Amino acid sequence: MKLFITGAGGFLGSAVRDCAVARGHEVSALVRKPTASDHPNLTYVDGDLRAPGAWTEALAGHDAVIHLAAAKSGDLATQFAGSVLSTEVLLTAMAAAQTLRLVHVSSFVVYDFDAVPSGATIDESTPLEDNPRSRDEYTQAKLLQERIVREWAATEHAPLTVLRPGAVWATDEHWDGGQAMSFGRLGLAVAPHAALKLTHVENCAEAIVLAAERPESIGTTLNIVDDNPPTAVEFSRALAAAGIEVPLPLPVPFVAFRALGSAIQYVNTRRFGGTAKVPGLFVPSKLDPRFKPFKYPNARAREVLHWNPRSLSTLLAEGSH
Amino acid sequence: MSARPLRAAVIGAGAIAHQHLQFLSTSTSAELVGVCDRSPALSTWAADTFGGVAFQDSDVMLRECGAQVVHILTPPASHLALATAALEAGAHVLVEKPLAATLAEFETLYDAAEARGLTVMENQNYRFNDQILELSSRIRSGELGALVDAEVRLSLDFASDDRFSSPLLNSPVGHLRGGAIRDFLPHAVGLIFELCGEADPTDLHASWWSLKKIERLGPDELDVVYDVKGVRCRIRVSASTKPEGFRVVARGTGGATEVDLFQPVDLRESARDGGALSPLIDQIKAGTRLVTGSGTGLAKKVLQHTPYHGLNRLLGHYYHALQTGTALPLEREQILRCAGCIDQIAETAP
Q: Is the CB of residue A125 less than 8 Å from the CB of residue A182?
């Protein structure tokens, strides 16, 4: 297949690029910094999605676009520019080039974690957040990004797959073992026995490329989470056992943190009209998506994509990055 | 009985627009009737979030929404055309800085507004921040004695902002002499006038250079000095110096005050009285002020009293002035003097 990959210079994007090339695809990788290709099946395309440019001419003739580009940080305007405006430009260019097959990489953050009781299952049928402004800038941008992608696909009758990866990790991007914060060698494991919605960058990249390959994925929305995701304590221990430095997890029950957050929110609302800017860990609507205990089945992605993610122990034993 | 709210519309829904829209959605002086942005997603989001009707074409919005006031919040190169169109549609116009590229363009717009009995104003929100108003008041009251030096130092890594530095994007200020630095000058120059009073600058010397060596960016360091009413003024813009800050310092014969608009700490020093214990007492006073200032600053941070709070105050005054027919918070003469000073500085740019 001829694949056009946006965000191909990023953490997940570069893994998708490598996986696609390894699986024999012809890849055009959109990057913001000029890069020399070291593989005959890989062509780098210089471009910035926020502005139509020469890169749009490269879109024609591709079998599918894998859209990973998004802003990960910054204020709301920056994240809208990097995730929403850029997607609008891409979709307009795709329509013009009549390259309509799209694998859109959304995010797990779009769900309404408050609507699901603690301990229940989050799957593809879980409702989306209906109060975006209560969430962080990244969530607001990803929600809007996914919405315009769906609207475009409906208008253009475009074959669309939406993937929602959980927390993508690698040995050098391990989220402090899933801990909320660290103080020197000690870390705070909020909800120590709750599963982390982890997916290793190589597993996730494989799922994304499989989605482009498999026609069965068209019209589906799939959560991408590895099998049997570990708890923060288990993850930290596994990383430490593999020689990766992580803070020693200090377990704190989720309900205790949640109660503290609710109390702070009550005071903030009553005393300051809700204007006080409080760290996300103490804001229930921001705490829940990260640490509220849920189950994260991946049966749908495994079935549709014929995806067999490698286990945590295998990945660590193999020394995957 | 309170005046009727003015029908307001916004062109450009990115970046700074969120601050304007927040004001317009909560003010009793304004009724947000239209939000225009080329991006359907952004204009729709803004209208859903803050109110009004979403438009993607400014001409259509100006024709259909009957705005009495139009905020133009787009990249600078579009200001002149959009402001002219808004004036022709019969609206007062508030424009983000820089209102136009040259003093001549400023004058053209002001003349066009006055010919229609309308107003135009550039946003210089930092002049209305608490710390600046307090500092101005301290200067006017004579607390600092006779003012000798006024300095504005902006340390901000704008070189890492790829809107300015990326060759893949159209720089919003690429058409302006002085490049990215020029984008910050309206604030800095306005603040100097706020401290020193209104008079044309004299004896102006400027140095521009580049430490980052980013071709697209042009100079990323500026040091300019000039005189205003006998006060030696300095503006220093730097993309490299740390920590980042927006410091304003006034030094007079009776003491000095330094404020940072990014980190709201207010450091005051008074002239010693020369008594035996003066050094010790001054040190205790300075320490107390530092602790108090830091505590106050932290509280402001937590309560989101952001550096943009001056914009709310400016907009409040602006709408009140339009409703009552009184003087705008920044009058033609002030804005044109700023533009003239910026032209003088920009002429020295490489």
A: no
Q: How far is the alpha carbon of A140 from chain B, nearest alpha carbon, in Å?
A: 10
Beta carbons of A277 and B162 less than 8 Å apart = no
Compute the distance between CA of residue A290 and CA of residue B219 in angstroms, rounded to an integer: 43
- With contacts defined as CB-CB under 8 Å, which chain B residues touch A84? 39, 41-42, 45
The two structure tokens encoding residue A1: 């297949």
Residue with tokens 């004299």: B202
Decide: helix, strand or coil at residue A202. Answer: helix
Low-confidence ranges of chain A (pLDDT < 50): none
Please give the pLDDT value at position B130.
Answer: 92
Residue ranges of chain B assigned to CATH 3.40.50.720: 6-122
The answer to whether residue B302 neighbours chain A at the CB level (below 8 Å) is yes
pLDDT at B1: 47
Q: Is it the case that residue B140 has pLDDT exceeding 60?
A: yes
- Domain B6-122 matching CATH 3.40.50.720: the answer reads yes
Who among A47, A77, A84 is closest to B41 (CB)?
Answer: A84
B116 and chain A: CB distance < 8 Å anywhere? no
**CA nearest neighbour of A6 among A22, A16, B168:** A16
Residue B243 to chain A, least CA–CA distance (Å): 19
Q: For B238-265, how does the pLDDT look when each residue is reduced to its tens digit (9 = 90+)? A: 999 999 999 999 999 999 999 999 876 6
Search chain B and give the residue with CA nearest A279: B302
pLDDT tens digits along A200-246: 999 999 999 999 999 999 999 999 999 999 998 899 999 999 998 88
Question: Which positions in chain A touch B17 (Cβ < 8 Å)?
Answer: 77
Closest-CA distance, B28 to chain A, in angstroms, reads: 18
Domain(s) of CATH 3.30.360.10: residues in chain B: 127-262
Cα separation values, B38 from A12, A145, A213, B11, Å: 30, 16, 35, 9
* B39 touching A (Cβ < 8 Å): yes
Reported in sequence order, the residue ranges of chain B that DSSP labels E, i.e. its strands, are 6-11, 30-36, 53-55, 69-72, 92-95, 120-122, 147-155, 202-209, 221-228, 231-238, 245-252, 255-260, 266-270
Domain B127-262 has CATH 3.30.360.10: yes
Separation of alpha carbons A140 and A211, rounded Å? 25
- What value does the mean pLDDT of chain B take? 91
Using the Cα atoms of residue B159, residue A16, residue A62 and residue A27 in order, give the sign of their dihedral: positive
Contact B18 A77 (CB under 8 A): yes
pLDDT at B2: 62
Q: What is the DSSP string of B193-222?
A: HHHH-S---EEEEEEEE-SS--TTT---EE
Instruction: Note the pLDDT tens digit of each residue in B327-338.
Output: 999 999 999 999
pLDDT-based confidence at residue B97 (cuts at 50, 70, 90):
very high
Any CB–CB contact under 8 A between B166 and chain A?
Answer: yes
Q: How far, in Å, CA of B179 to CA of B63, rounded?
A: 34
Task: Give the pairing type, strands A198-200 and A167-169.
Answer: parallel
Confidence band of B87 (pLDDT split at 50, 70, 90): very high
Band of the pLDDT at B129, cuts 50, 70, 90? Answer: very high
